[in-house]
Amino acid sequence: MRIGNTEIRPLGGGLGCLLMILFSVLASVVLTVLLNLLL
Q1: Does residue 2 lie in a domain region?
Q2: Which stretches are transmembrane (predicted)?
């Protein structure tokens, strides 16, 4: 990913990027379920 003339590389290349996206989606789903159970 490029911002201006600096290039940002995700940890672990493409696989690490995919894993980070999957982890964030799973974490948001888990947090939503926990909040619904608590409230």
Answers
A1: no
A2: 12-38
| CB-CB neighbours of 19 under 10 Å | 13
**Lookup: tokens for 26:** 């799973």
DSSP string, 1-39: -EETTEE---TTHHHHHHHHHHHHHHHHHHHHHHHHHH-
Angle made by CA atoms 39, 27, 33, in degrees to the nearest 5: 25
Q: What is the mean pLDDT of residues 16-38?
A: 90
pTM for the predicted model, two decimal places: 0.58
Number of domains making up the chain: 1
Residue 29, domain extent:
12-38
In angstroms, how far is CA 24 from the centroid of its own chain? 3
